[in-house]
Amino acid sequence: MHAPDSFQVDRRTAIKWVLAAAAALHLPELTAAELQKVVAATGYGKDPDLLKQFTPGELWPLTLDDRQRRIATALCDLIVPAEGEWPAASSVGVVAFIDEWISAPYPQMSQDRPLILDGLAWLDAESKRRFDKDFADALEIQKQKICDDICPGPNANPQLSRAVEFFTRFRALTAAGYYTTPQGMRDLGYVGNVPLARFEGPPTEVMKKLGLA
Predict the structure, then answer these.
(1) Residue 191 and residue 56: Cα distance in Å, rounded?
(2) DSSP string computed for the chain
(3) Of 18, 144, 9, which is closest to residue 89 (Cα–Cα)?
(4) CB burial class (10 A; 0-12, 13-18, 19+) of residue 196?
(5) Model's pTM, two decimal places?
(6) For residue 35, what pLDDT band results from cuts at 50, 70 and 90?
(7) pLDDT tens, residue by residue, 111-128
């Protein structure tokens, strides 16, 4: 099992990750005056057709170029690698999700865009400095060494605060993207709105933890 501050997502505690990612992805709270400005604002276009399945880039232009996508793919798969029957993050569209996120014309996404782009550039430059290789072409252990220095926690390098901020955000986006796919939800054991032949009630261990059994 990975350490709590490991850069990889421990699948056995993925529920905690999803909750943390959901909190990390919240939009900023708005005052009544700010909300009124948002409602009155124009420029985002018409509401999307919710019955249509949109492809990446169809609603707004995407941001990542080929080099940036290679770096993002390598980092996503380092955070959520393939394991047994479960696929790696990039193979279920997480890189496309992150690209869509940072390309969206909304305040939170616009704020994330320079952080993610600067972070990807830093990863590549740091890998070239340390190992004379692009980050995407570095060995697994070499990528891990870089990520160990920017993973938030007691071992993070205090001189790399901007890179730590980038990694924290990128890891949250990766977890959010992965565990909202059908494969990620099955990995969590999430059943969803599926009819059951019978319901046995909450597990006994949960009831005990809540002091109800």
Answers:
(1) 27
(2) ---TT-SS--GGGHHHHHHHHHHHTPPPP--HHHHHHHHH---S-SPP-TTS-PPTTSSS-----HHHHHHHHHHHHHHS--BTTBPPGGGGTHHHHHHHHHHSSSHHHHHHHHHHHHHHHHHHHHHHHHHSS-GGGS-HHHHHHHHHHHSSSTTS-GGGHHHHHHHHHHHHHHHHHHTTSHHHHHHHT---S---S----S-HHHHHHTT--
(3) 9
(4) exposed
(5) 0.71
(6) very low
(7) 999 999 999 999 999 999
In this structure, are residues 14 and 179 in contact, taking their beta carbons and an 8 Å threshold? yes
User: Which pair of structure tokens corresponds to residue 26?
Assistant: 């919240």
CA dihedral defined by 20, 18, 8, 86, rounded to 10 degrees?
Answer: 180
Contacts of 79 (CB under 8 A, 6+ apart): 7, 8, 9, 89, 170, 171, 174, 175
Question: Alpha-carbon torsion 97, 102, 108, 112, what sign?
Answer: positive
Query: What is the C-alpha to C-alpha distance for residues 82 and 54, in angstroms, rounded to an integer?
Result: 26
CB contact at 8 A, 65 and 163: no
How many CB atoms are closer than 10 A to CB 152?
13
